[in-house]
Amino acid sequence: MSDTVDYLITGASGQLGALVLQQLKAAAPDATIGALVRRPEAVAALEAQGFTVRVAAYDDPAALETAFAGVEKLLLISSSEVGKRADQHAKVIDAAKKVGVRFVAYTSILNADSSPLTVLPGEHVATERALAASGLDYALLRNGWYTENYVMGAGAALEHGALIGAAGEGRISSAARADYAAAAVAVLTGATPARGTIYELAGTESYTLAEFAAALSEIAGREIPYVNMSEADYAAALEGAGLPVPVAQMLADSDNGAAQGGLFSENTTLSTLIGRPTTPWKDTLAAGVTVES
To answer: Are 9 and 24 in contact (CB under 8 A)?
Structure first.
């Protein structure tokens, strides 16, 4: 497997990866674009779209080396397996170095090295340090919060008549997942940035969860209040709703961090990279909510 691949996107069957692939195909139609997946059953659909598909899990060094052969630029989308990610990403970085990948961009988290969040940043910082020690040319895409992270809770808020959280009056500078995908494409297809370049990426607008609930109320045509809870109570509520314990704890910690300003930023790098303001959060909310008539 030595054919040259201009760009390889990991996590290609995930939500962010799928958006990056489609936008990259539009931005670089003549490039050879690779998609890395861990499930063989995901191969056919991506090949049908014209992508070069390679199969490897983040924790399989031999498979990763085979998959990375001939790759020029790699987008390492962070693993979804919280608690295992630092080790998995280290294996990806080692494989990329061994086979001579020319450039790696990594999706980290906003202000990773100074964030008040406690669950998510640690593994991102470990990955950033591994990249710095690798000798590879790399850049860090420190993605802020996805607006969709809160939109996915809108249905439950409508069902129960309240939006719950633990963010207090903290402001959240989120952007649509597609905006972050566009930024990744811009970095991959542009001139290779200086080694270790950090892009702090946040939405053009910000909101509190009370403002988010007010917008949801307008869509629903009835009052949906925001109910602020302690981090522990919010985690327990999420667990009670059926979320896995690590996910519930991560979301509750993220809200607690938001209360301390951890999801807020006035940095305009994201809108500069994509050449426009980020998608209005109210538009993403409206598109993601179904209100029964």
So the answer is: yes
Task: Please enumerate in sequence order all residues whose Cβ is within 8 A of that of 85, keeping only pairs 6 or more positions apart, or say none.
Answer: 78, 79, 123, 124, 127
Count other C-beta atoms under 10 Å from residue 277's C-beta. 14
Contact 181, 27 (CB under 8 A): no
217 CB-contact burial (10 Å; exposed 0-12 / middle 13-18 / buried 19+): middle
Q: What distance in Å separates the CA atoms of residue 206 and residue 261, rounded to the nearest whole number?
A: 11
- The tokens for 163 are 């939006």
CA distance 144 to 110: 5
Q: Among positive and negative, which fits the CA dihedral 245, 250, 253, 254?
A: negative
> Could you tell me which residues come within 8 angstroms of residue 266 by beta carbon, excluding any fewer than 6 positions away?
173, 202
d(CA 270, CA 265): 11
Compute the Cα dihedral for 162, 166, 168, 173 and give only its sign: negative
Q: Please write the tens of the pLDDT for every residue from 57-113.
A: 999 999 999 999 999 999 999 998 888 899 999 999 999 999 999 999 999 999 999
190 Ramachandran zone, left/alpha/beta (phi>0; psi -120 to 50) = beta
> Where do the domains of the chain lie, and which CATH numbers do they carry?
5-145+177-201 (3.40.50.720), 151-158+160-171+204-266+276-288 (3.90.25.10)
| DSSP character at residue 77 | P
- Those residues whose C-beta lies under 8 Å from the C-beta of residue 32, and which sit 6 or more positions away, are 3, 4, 5, 6, 7, 52
Residue 269 in tokens: 């790098």
Beta bridge partners, 137, equal 103
Mean pLDDT of 49-58: 96
Backbone torsion region of residue 161, taken as left when φ is above 0, otherwise alpha when ψ lies between -120 and 50, otherwise beta: left
